[in-house]
Amino acid sequence: MIYYKIKCKYTVTEETDEAKLMRFWRKADSSYVGGQIFRVIILERDDTTIDALLMFSVSDHSLSSIKKRVISEFDETGETIKSLNFSKTPEEITVTEAISLIRCRTIDGAGGNAYRCSKRVATRWCNAEYLNDNFDLKFDEFVLPHTQLSFLKAKDEARGILADESFYEELERIYSPLNKRKFCGNPVNYLINAASRETAKNLVKLLTKALYSNKRLLSTRVAYVTELGDVSYDKAIKNLCENSYASVVVIECSDSNIKDDRFARGHERLSEDIYDILKEYSLQTAFILVDLGSKACKQAVGELIVKEDISFIEISEGKGDNSTGKKYLKTLLKENKVRYVKEDFVIPEQEVYSVNDIVTAYRNIKKNRIRNSLYKSYKEIKPLKIDAPVAVSNSYEKLQSMVGLTEIKSIIDQIVSSQKINKLRVEMGLDVTGISKHMIFTGNPGSAKTTVARLLTSILYEEKVIDRNRFVECGRQDLVGRYVGWTAKQVEEQFRKAMGGILFIDEAYSLVEREGLYGDEAINTIVQMMENYRDTVIVIFAGYPDKMERFLEKNEGLRSRIAFHIDFPDYNADELCDILKLMSKNKGFTLDGEAEEKCRRIFDEACKNAEFGNGRFVRNLLEQAIIKQSSRLVKEYGNTKIDKSIVSLLSADDFDINAAKVYKTEKIAIGF
């Protein structure tokens, strides 16, 4: 759809009296004129002029043909409107502006009551349901003027925004006389490597103007998507693409826009979304992917080129001399409405500036003007210096840094080595048929089964053993359906979600604990799916040791498909003390000597009880101690000032709690 603001002059027939004219306008005002081909929504009118919103599908009609239809069909009978003429050139507007105009107009209702159109109705009239509040799609939208840009002018503007040679080469192709000057579909898409959103938008705008000037686009509307939303390839982005025929859709790829949820959306999910979108819509819409430093972008492009034969032109930002660089910096500040005084305009003197140099200077000016020009009392303050914590570099190092788990770490090394060699054998054309990759984790609550499984997913991905860094966690409620026939579908849905990664089935034994509630069907389907998805999904079953044995006995095919059985032992008292110190440090607390001794006695007692909670018990103990400390400090100090060292210190009295008495059942030796 394309949207225009229009202004028309009209005259009425001699037979039309005021009452008849009012009835005509009341009918026209209540909804819209037209139907599936076009729609005209009246915004304002007087005795001779109509201000209206015109929308139509550019895939089937041109503006000139729609003008004729509007004039001929505005009054089908011809009994009221004698003539209707466009008095000025229609102005293209964004969908957002169109919806806003519809909602601002007043409609006369029954009984003379006036009302305004709801957003839901306005989005439906505009075929733009993706703008409803129930979608989490985030995007910016703008329309460029419908002016012709010559080749020489395009190259001049490219110099002004420090475009790279790759951009000039594409301008040569766009303006080539070998091309048909008519929209016949979208031959290529674009990948822009940019330093910032601001500079990327300048490249997008110039590229859009060049394409429109050569009839490669029918609209200058640009939808700049910054976040696709949490639902993979959802209705919103699909609706936006359908509504962007022969216009531009930009998808920004940045690590800061990626949300890591419990299903490990991350880079892989974003890459899949981009792949699905372009696969379906790239022939009718010009897509521009803006890469601000994301793995997902180039991964999606690579798959689209190899699997779908979709073409891309890669464009990078370039450099400029001293004068051009400073001029571009001023342009960025002006376009983004950043006001500054002369002393704020600070940029290192260089003969040549890269776009990254300009972006750094732009951000510094934008940041410093707040303190230096707007809140001047903060101009001379010295910045606070804090030693940054040393970050753990990758998932393998995170696993190695965990307390205890010595035997488990060794087994994980074996698993990684095994999977790497299996992959190498596949690449060499050697047989790996029948080699299972599935695992079972057994252990009591709090023994780090889920944490290790998550880290293992990342480790296998980093080692290129699995294709996607995807960890899908599910339980009985996600696998067992309420009615006959639902269970198999739900199980397969979880396997589809985990394709390329790991499916973690927690408390798997619960599938056999409730007879007659489709648990058996779930287990049988899991076994079948483990075979169907053996090359794309690794399944990890997790649960209590004794209960997991019963689970394995439920189906003959389960045990034979599991390659690795890892038992997570309970932590001993020394390990629990180490975990407590680590947790305390992460929360900004330390324990005095008496507190450490008291905690050791608590852990010694706790370890005598079955299922005492392991790491979870430590966390609960620490949280209760912090609450107890807060209460103690308020009583001791009241409203007086408390030193930071006191607030950060936990004493033995703070651990005078009943956490160790919760687990009273004597531990029994268990195993397979």
Q: How is the quaternary structure best described?
A: single chain
- What profile does the largest beta sheet have? 6 strands, antiparallel
Intertermini distance? 65 Å
Q: Approximately how much helix is present in the residues? A: 40-55%
What is the alpha-carbon Rg in Å?
33 Å
The secondary-structure class comes to: alpha/beta
Mean pLDDT: 82
Figure out the total of helices: 24
Shape: globular
Which residues sit in consecutive blocks of at least 5 with pLDDT less than 50? Answer: 259-265, 388-393, 664-672
Count of extended strands: 23
Report the portion of residues in β strands: 15-25%
Written description of the protein model:
With 672 residues, the chain is of the alpha/beta class. It contains 24 helices and 23 strands. The strands form six sheets. Strands 1, 2, 3, 4, 5 and 6 form a six-stranded antiparallel beta sheet that branches. A six-stranded mixed beta sheet has the order 9-11-12-13-10-14, with helices on both faces. Helix 5 (151-160) runs antiparallel to helix 6 (165-174), helix 5 runs antiparallel to helix 7 and helix 21 (573-586) crosses helix 23 (614-637). It is globular and about 100 Å long. It starts with a strand and ends in a 22-residue tail after the last strand. The model is unreliable at 259-265, 388-393 and 664-672 (pLDDT under 50). This is AAA family ATPase. It comes from Ruminococcus difficilis. One of its GO terms (molecular function) is ATP hydrolysis activity. It holds the Pfam family AAA_lid_6.
